[in-house]
Amino acid sequence: MVAPMAESLIVLEKLVKRYGTETVLDRVDLTVAPGQVLVVIGPSGSGKSTLLRCLARLEEIQHGRILIEGKLVSRGSEDTGPLPDAATLHALRNEIGMVFQSFNLFPHLTVIENVTLAPRRVMGVSSAEAEALAIELLTRVGLEDKRDAYPSRLSGGQQQRAAIARALAMRPRVMLFDEVTSALDPELVGEVLKTMRGLAERGMTMLVVTHEMGFARDVADDVIFMDHGVIVERAPPNRIFAEPAEPRTRAFLERLLERDGGSRRT
Amino acid sequence: MSDFQFGRIVEYLPDLINDAWQTLWLSVTSVTLGLVLGLVLALARLSGRKLFDWPAYAYIEFFRTTPPLVQIVWLYYGLPGLFGVDLGAFGAAAAALGLNIAAFFAEIFRAGIAGVDRTQWQAARVLGLGWTDTLRFVVLPQAARKVLPPTGTTVIYLIKGTALASAIGTPELLRVGQLVANETFRPVETLTIVAIAYFVLTYPIALAFHALERRFAADRA
Question: What is the pLDDT along chain A (266 residues), one digit of tens a residue?
């Protein structure tokens, strides 16, 4: 076992996640350095979304450990050993932001209310301060004119950008994107990817589960290929797309290229 | 059968109005108790913990399946004998009706809260919102919209149900109506006036719930 690296923002050690008897993540190891953008690809059911959900602590893990900034935040429920302490969890509760495929905006709140709710309630920021931050973020994602609209009045792309602004309002150190463009009409995908590129350029640490290979090629520091609950291969995009080391990666990429006809651009 | 004659009943109108207030007050007390307890029971049932879920389940089924009239009698005659607690006629009626209606509210609220998509809880969780804040700012406002129509119906049902309090002598509309009917020998007219009084009490509540529904719906238009 390698000693925990001080420079790693996130460390996953031997993560095992099961639903009943089905093993969804099978001893997954992963390290993420600050500022890294990792794109996770793989067939459906390969465990990529579950990986993000475990990191966001939406799922319990059966074995393994999750460390953020070297501090334990999650431990396998069937393991023994120290549990994360409450103070650490409290201190790190805002470290990870997540954006979902289905946006999950709060439908009864306006865009700006969606963005300001958590800063006000969780961080105790004043309404004025929360609004100022929200307006700054909404401007960054190009939604300043939609601040008082309800989510149902927005296009899918606008809703997803609002969801990104909402997550950023908690000033997370890591952003998780779980197939955030998969539910969008094709013409709306670009605006969301553009927002994500902007975020990467600002140095945000990101884990992105996506089928957008153009995004992976341009933005990712590393691409991770997952299959059947394991990380099969991790490599920089130019290498993994040009000459994948593993046959399974190659087979997956070939199928993807056939489907898209190589024409999909972002 | 003679024609309707309302003449003599007019003398009793001040009594009827006074007791309409009693009915209203009884309703307000028991609805308030029922709403608060109903929400607690619904959350207990949804907690996923047997320690909370099972007692709530037992409570709800017990109060849903036994007659409210009997529950009133238990509290009025039973409590003083068993526990030395005397709530008085109004107190016993308000408590019994509140405890009873709580079981119905609990089932309505449970369905409403469970009907809010799980992804809303997850979105709140990754933002760091705690259970109470998630409930208060995210889930309950969305559940409220779904539960308004059945809640309104249940409130109206309860207001008319307050007539059961007459069984233990609580002054309220129906009881006074019966007394007036006995004195005037005009039961049909008297009870018609009583019915109108119930309508005057309940219809604004129906309107208020419709208005609330529209307001909640407008939020998302």
Answer: 444 445 799 999 999 999 989 999 999 999 999 999 999 999 988 999 999 999 999 999 999 999 999 889 889 999 888 888 888 888 888 899 999 999 999 999 999 999 999 999 999 999 999 999 999 999 999 999 999 999 999 999 999 999 999 999 999 999 999 999 999 998 999 999 999 999 999 999 999 999 999 999 999 999 999 999 999 999 999 999 999 999 999 999 998 878 766 554 44
Radius of gyration of chain B (CA): 21
Cα–Cα distance, B186 to B183 (Å, whole number): 8
Amino acid letter, residue B157? Y
B129: nearest CB among A97, A105, A118: A118
> Within an 8 Å CB–CB cutoff, is residue B125 touching chain A?
yes
d(CA B173, CA B191): 9
CA–CA gap between residue B113 and residue B140 (Å, rounded):
7
Reported ipTM: the value is 0.89
* Residue listed under structure tokens 């520091």: A221
Question: Cβ(A116)–Cβ(A169) under 8 Å?
Answer: yes
Contacts of B71 (CB under 8 A, 6+ apart): B63, B96, B99, B100
Task: Name residues whose C-beta falls within 8 Å of residue A57's C-beta, 6 or more positions apart in sequence.
Answer: A73, A74, A96, B125
Cα(B37)–Cα(B42) distance, rounded to whole angstroms? Answer: 9
CA B89 to chain centre: 18
Cβ contacts (< 8 Å) between B123 and chain A: which residues?
Answer: 100, 104-106
**Residues of chain B contacting A122 with CB distance shorter than 8 Å:** 127-130, 133
**Element at A116 (helix H, strand E):** helix A111-122
CB contacts under 8 A, A 153-212 vs B, are 153, 166-167, 170
Listed in order, strand segments (DSSP E) in A89-229 are 96-99, 174-178, 205-209, 222-227
User: Phi and psi of B133, rounded to 5°?
Assistant: -65, -40
For A247, phi then psi, to 5°, come to -55, -35
Nearest alpha carbon to residue A23 among A228, A196, A208? A228
